[in-house]
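User: My advisor asked me to double-check a structure prediction for Ricin B lectin domain-containing protein before group meeting. I don't want to rely on an old file, so could you generate it fresh from this sequence?
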Amino acid sequence: MQYSAQSSYFIPWMLFFAYLLWLGIKGLFFCLGECFHGWLEPLLARIVEEPTAVVSPEITTIDLNTFQFHKPVATARAHNRGNFDWSLTFGWEGIPEYENAKRKDETYPVKTPTFAGGLFSISKVYFEKIGTYDDKMEIWGGENVEMSFRVWQCGGQLEIIPCSVVGHVFRTKSPHTFPKGTEVITRNQVRLAEVWMDDYKLIYYRRSQNAAKMASEKNFGDISDRLKLRETLQCKNFSWYLTNVYPEAFVPDLTPVKFGALRNKGAQQCLDVGENNNGGKPLIMYVCHNMGGNQYFEYTSHNELRHNIGKQLCLHATMYPEQVKVELCTLKGKGTSLAPEQEWIFTEEELLKNPSSGKCLHKKGDKLLMSPCNPSDHHQQWAFS
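Assistant: Sure, here is a fresh prediction for Ricin B lectin domain-containing protein from the sequence you gave:
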């Protein structure tokens, strides 16, 4: 069966939400969505059972071009839960087996570290108790991650309810225009980092020069009321969140051995992952821009060179004549280990040596290759800037 999202639903939806508010439930469903049969009852039932639960439906896809509603298929496992990366961007990931094991059957809620934010229900009383939204955030961006941290750290829980299904049109680009550009999103993210992340905010700031500058200049608005809210609610710290809510998260070094842009002394250019590199693609050399992003690397306490703005990518040695690339880091926490190709040593001569191969990173022409180490070759010398 096909379903189509129609604008004529607007008035009935508004009336329905008014009824929900009268019941003491806030149901927040932003545009570009349509609800599957029986979507509401599971959400309300869970809130009655656990008033501090902030519940979201299972989200399925509405085709961008045809508006066909892809009916969910019953499975023995729920599909995804929310996460975040250290650029404070929301994403999706599979549900760990130990979380599925806690659930008696497929109808049971799924605990989620973060939520998408556009589709959820919450008790009106609880929504007000935990501080609704940060009303000094601007326009859009970061509010869902902020609320995710706040709910968990202040005694609530985020859940996905598999028996509630809502379709969503996933756009290929944002329809919003920001008068101040992406600075609006950065400002919102700095606000959430300053209030909820404690020292871990430094991990975010190392990945965004704009955010770091905004934080150092205190150019993110007054957060005193949000800090007071955290104190009043006796919220837990961010270390507790990482340990108890999202132990699977890879936490970068709070104080990396070195970090920044890797400049090649011979070429006076910087190592750059290039556009849309999710692993497996060769690196490039580019004019050093000192803005982080594609040129941000960390030399970790495990001797990795990590580019971990979003995905955890590591500099990966190759066999000549294959070009050096970034691959997904093999060291991901408990139960994982460092691949020999991802270990690097900075020598006294400023060479980047891979101990396993005995070769060094070399800018040769327009390529990055592994070559026999030569301390007198400036195109094999690297320094963080």
